[in-house]
Specification:
This protein has one domain: predicted glycosyltransferase like domains (Thrombin, subunit H, Beta Barrel), CATH 2.40.10. It is 11% helix and 51% strand. The termini are far apart. A six-stranded antiparallel β-barrel has the order 1-2-3-6-5-4. By secondary structure, the chain is mainly beta. The protein is built from one helix and six strands.
Length: 107
């Protein structure tokens, strides 16, 4: 029988499914259009059309949410998975972003 992996997440994830532009690495490079799959206070999971994102790269993104405003955050790519999925550990986020995430988690 296989081993059961312990859930190490500090916060629950909330499914989002929002298209977002993410700048990976150099801010002057063309942004990737990705799906923001799910979100938690400590991180975000995205899905790109390709597997070009690499561990340790910097990711910066912004998006606008009705009734909240312009959300902005950034962090390092913590994990990648096949199918263009990558997880960003958040290091900085504006107040609007933090409030938006907390409103999702509280719902």
């Amino acid at each position: 029988m296989g081993q059961v992996r312990k859930n190490r997440r500090k916060h629950a994830r909330v499914a989002v499914g929002l298209p977002v532009e993410v700048h990976i690495g150099d801010a002057t490079a063309n942004p990737l259009i990705v799906e923001l799959m799910d979100i938690a206070p400590g991180g975000i999971r995205f899905r790109a059309l390709s597997d070009e994102v690499r561990l340790g790269q910097r990711a910066k993104f912004t998006f606008t949410v009705a009734d909240h405003g312009q959300c902005a955050a950034e962090g390092a790519v913590l994990r990648t998975q096949p199918g263009g999925v990558f997880i960003v550990a958040l290091e900085r986020a504006n107040r609007v972003f933090r409030d938006f995430v907390l409103s999702l988690v509280a719902a």
